[in-house]
């Protein structure tokens, strides 16, 4: 009994401390960070939104997406992102990876199908389709593709938009990031920014 | 630059950042846990909260405070989850179901942060900030406080079981360590691209005329403490793989550093608290050796990309983000399972079989490489006591650690500590794999299905929180089972640690003599590493054989 009473006494002290912690760490801290973030890095803090012409914006009604978030591509003349397992694809309300294991027969089948499909679409041998093109990303909204996946899409995109392959390849190069500081992460191409640039040069 | 060289440089950059920061933060932590002086703000807080900061608590009182505070935390968060739709900034989401609210309350209070729900589809901004993230701070502070109390217990002599004041430890850890460091990390994260706002969900029209929801929120502030406090609960379902939480390779390295810095610094602080820096160095070295092995194996496994699907695709990129690739995902995975964090920047279920096995083994070791904030240090010190005991048996002497005799009483406590998590994991796995409701949650069968279940119970009992996320755990069965495992896996060991701290604080310090086993030499680091691998690791070999090992060989 005395132990229970002691626990109650300690719990009451705990409740007072918890309320104080909630005010300090749960409200003051995030709100101060929000204030500073909005004042100093407003565009980033609001989600790195870009307009149809590639301008930065804070207004989601003007934006065509976030430079950080991959989206579905419904235009056969543009670059395709990686496969997505988020909801029905690129669903930011249901971000998800496939969570299929390395020996999963469904995954093996999916990879085979994607390889065939992409090879046919881009007119390249199956062996040239890179790994990121046939595997679902972790988030389902990966904004990037590998330079190798961009490279095999150049010829199709050039044809579809009345551009030379060199011009499209130059756009790809312009939107390729190397490893950060030369050694962190992997080289990558931002698909949304690249597609915006392609549309800007499109010959109608 | 070749991918291998880049991977090595990435690891070296992390080592350099840790080498620069750990001594500084370690010294700061030691001061926080030993200084008799209070800041003016702290004194005011103690008065307002009606706690006596000068009371030197007996270990029982200290444990009562820990349990009382955590009990209130669970009740508060449970109520928050159940009532979220009545509060502002709820995002229009329903209340959490009762089994889910229980699971989440326990999960965040125990520093586990297992998530059965999907952040963007279940939790509004208010509960994320004022419910979940508050526990990110205080559950981390509780872990650090208990570790500090244990270190003080070892440092004291004939002190009648008194090991310090929990409320002072808690308040100081939060105010002097977690808040300032988390604040700095949060600002850097936003500057690098993480989002931080209070906007509701907004539908956008995409470039090709589709629609996509913009899901903002107070993300960076939560991300910072989530990694620093080795919590791991993501704002979004895919955690640190989400570009709004972890936008680029630089933030990725920053987050890995944040995961590792406090556990390593605590080992440094330990040496200062017991007034023998070499002892802290030995503990830190053991942690570093184990982590290095884990990082090396995981990086090798992912970059080699063995297995049917990775071989067919050409690389193990399923469940990985392009910007991170294999190496940065492997490094994150080793850090998150070597600690009690459980944040992920890639899907662990899609790791190669040996890679997933290393992640699982890191948790099974009890997360001591370098472990959770606080829990990593006391977990390693428990193994240090086992090591001196085993060596004592070999030469037929009464063992001692830092001049404290280790007799039957102490060993009983250590044995309870060492056995608690394996029992929870193996019994939990047995229940999950025999109950129809347990099997119903698994996404696949065979060895990979077994790994999925084993990973879930291991993650819960060790307070990690990462998952083979194909599992459907938002059911009453899994929520209840994992909630119980998290609760027992956190507080049974913690009470044992405090009891042992009390015994050490009461004891005399024996002077070193010719028969004393030095606990600061490389020999001891080797012995301790061996004990960690043998005593703890072997417990799980049969289970690992049936899961990841069979899968690797198939």
UniProtKB/TrEMBL annotation, chain A:
HAMAP family: KdpC. Its main location: membrane. The system is composed of three essential subunits: KdpA, KdpB and KdpC. InterPro entries: KdpC (IPR003820). It holds the Pfam family KdpC. Transmembrane segments: none annotated. Part of the high-affinity ATP-driven potassium transport (or Kdp) system, which catalyzes the hydrolysis of ATP coupled with the electrogenic transport of potassium into the cytoplasm. This subunit acts as a catalytic chaperone that increases the ATP-binding affinity of the ATP-hydrolyzing subunit KdpB by the formation of a transient KdpB/KdpC/ATP ternary complex. The keyword Ribonucleoprotein does not apply. It is a single-pass membrane protein. It comes from the Bacteria. It is found in: Cell membrane. One of its GO terms (cellular component) is plasma membrane. Keywords: ATP-binding, Cell membrane, Ion transport, Membrane, Nucleotide-binding, Potassium, Potassium transport, Transmembrane, Transmembrane helix, Transport. PANTHER family: POTASSIUM-TRANSPORTING ATPASE C CHAIN, POTASSIUM-TRANSPORTING ATPASE KDPC SUBUNIT. Belongs to the KdpC family. This is Potassium-transporting ATPase KdpC subunit. GO terms for molecular function: ATP binding; P-type potassium transmembrane transporter activity.
Automatic annotation (TrEMBL), chain B:
One of its GO terms (molecular function) is P-type potassium transmembrane transporter activity. The chain crosses the membrane at residues 59-80, 137-155, 175-195, 256-274, 281-301, 377-399, 411-433, 481-502, 523-545. It is a multi-pass membrane protein. Keywords: Cell membrane, Ion transport, Membrane, Potassium, Potassium transport, Transmembrane, Transmembrane helix, Transport. Part of the high-affinity ATP-driven potassium transport (or Kdp) system, which catalyzes the hydrolysis of ATP coupled with the electrogenic transport of potassium into the cytoplasm. This subunit binds the extracellular potassium ions and delivers the ions to the membrane domain of KdpB through an intramembrane tunnel. Belongs to the KdpA family. This is Potassium-transporting ATPase potassium-binding subunit. It comes from Nocardioides turkmenicus. The gene is kdpA.
């Amino acid at each position: 009994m005395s132990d229970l009473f002691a626990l109650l006494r300690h719990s009451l002290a705990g409740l007072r401390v918890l309320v104080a912690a909630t005010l300090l760490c749960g409200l003051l801290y995030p709100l101060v960070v929000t204030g500073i973030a909005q004042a100093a890095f407003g565009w980033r803090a609001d989600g790195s939104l870009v307009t149809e012409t590639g301008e930065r914006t804070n207004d989601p009604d003007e934006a065509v997406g976030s430079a950080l978030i991959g989206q579905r591509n419904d235009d056969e003349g543009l670059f395709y992102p990686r496969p997505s397992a988020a909801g029905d694809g690129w669903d930011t309300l249901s971000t998800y990876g496939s969570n299929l294991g390395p020996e999963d027969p469904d995954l093996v089948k999916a990879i085979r199908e994607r390889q065939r499909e992409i090879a046919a679409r881009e007119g390249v041998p199956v062996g040239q389709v890179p790994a990121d093109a046939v595997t679902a990303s972790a988030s389902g909204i990966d904004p990037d593709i590998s330079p190798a996946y961009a490279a095999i899409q150049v010829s199709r995109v050039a044809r579809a938009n009345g551009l030379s392959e060199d011009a499209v390849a130059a756009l790809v190069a312009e939107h390729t990031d190397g490893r950060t500081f030369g050694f962190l992460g992997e080289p990558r191409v931002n698909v949304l920014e690249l597609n915006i640039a392609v549309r800007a040069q499109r010959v109608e | 630059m070749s991918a291998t060289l880049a991977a090595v440089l990435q690891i070296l950059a992390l080592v350099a950042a840790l080498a620069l920061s750990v001594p500084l933060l370690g010294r700061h932590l030691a001061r926080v846990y030993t200084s008799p002086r209070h800041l003016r703000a702290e004194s005011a807080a103690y008065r307002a909260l009606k706690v006596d900061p000068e009371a030197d608590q007996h270990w029982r009182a200290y444990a009562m405070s820990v349990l009382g505070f955590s009990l209130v935390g669970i009740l508060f968060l449970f109520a928050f989850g159940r009532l979220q739709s009545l509060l502002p900034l709820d995002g229009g989401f329903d209340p959490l179901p009762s089994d889910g609210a229980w699971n989440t309350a326990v999960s965040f209070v125990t520093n586990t942060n297992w998530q059965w729900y999907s952040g963007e589809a279940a939790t509004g901004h208010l509960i994320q900030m004022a419910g979940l993230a508050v526990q990110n701070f205080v559950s981390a502070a509780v872990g650090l406080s208990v570790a500090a109390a244990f270190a003080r217990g070892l440092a004291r002599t004939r002190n009648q079981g008194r090991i310090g004041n929990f409320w002072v430890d808690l308040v100081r850890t939060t105010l002097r360590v977690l808040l300032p460091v988390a604040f700095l990390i949060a600002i850097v994260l936003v500057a690098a691209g993480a989002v931080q706002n209070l906007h509701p969900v907004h539908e956008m029209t995409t470039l090709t005329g589709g629609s996509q929801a913009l899901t903002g929120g107070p993300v960076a502030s939560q991300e910072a403490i989530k990694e620093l406090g080795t919590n791991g609960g993501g704002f979004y379902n895919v955690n640190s793989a989400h570009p709004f939480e972890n936008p680029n390779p630089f933030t990725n390295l920053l987050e890995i550093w944040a995961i590792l810095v406090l556990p390593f610094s605590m080992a440094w602080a330990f040496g200062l608290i017991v007034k023998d820096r070499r002892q802290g160095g030995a503990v830190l070295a053991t942690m570093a050796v184990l982590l290095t092995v884990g990082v090396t194996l995981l990086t090798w496994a992912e970059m080699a990309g063995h297995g049917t699907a990775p071989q067919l695709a050409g690389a193990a990129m399923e469940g990985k983000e392009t910007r991170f690739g294999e190496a940065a995902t492997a490094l994150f995975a080793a850090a998150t399972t070597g600690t009690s964090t459980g944040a992920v920047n890639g899907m662990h279920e899609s790791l190669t079989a040996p890679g997933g096995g290393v992640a699982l083994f890191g948790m099974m070791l009890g997360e001591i490489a370098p472990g959770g904030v606080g829990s990593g240090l006391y977990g390693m010190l428990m193994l240090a006591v086992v090591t001196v005991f085993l060596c004592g048996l070999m030469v037929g002497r009464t063992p001692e650690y830092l001049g404290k005799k280790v007799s039957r009483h102490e060993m009983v406590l250590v044995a309870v500590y060492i056995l608690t998590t394996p029992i929870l994991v193996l019994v939990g796995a047995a229940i999950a794999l025999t109950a129809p409701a347990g099997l119903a949650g698994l996404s696949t069968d065979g060895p990979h299905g077994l790994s999925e279940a084993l990973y879930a119970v291991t993650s819960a009992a060790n307070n990690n929180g990462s998952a083979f996320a194909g599992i459907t755990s938002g059911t009453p069965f899994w929520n209840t089972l994992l909630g119980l495992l998290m609760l027992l896996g956190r507080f049974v060991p913690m009470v044992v640690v405090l009891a042992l701290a009390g015994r050490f604080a009461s004891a005399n310090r024996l002077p070193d003599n010719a028969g004393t086993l030095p606990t600061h030499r490389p020999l001891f680091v080797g012995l301790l590493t061996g004990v960690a691998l043998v005593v703890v690791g072997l417990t799980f070999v049969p289970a690992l054989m049936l899961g990841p090992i069979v899968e690797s060989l198939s």
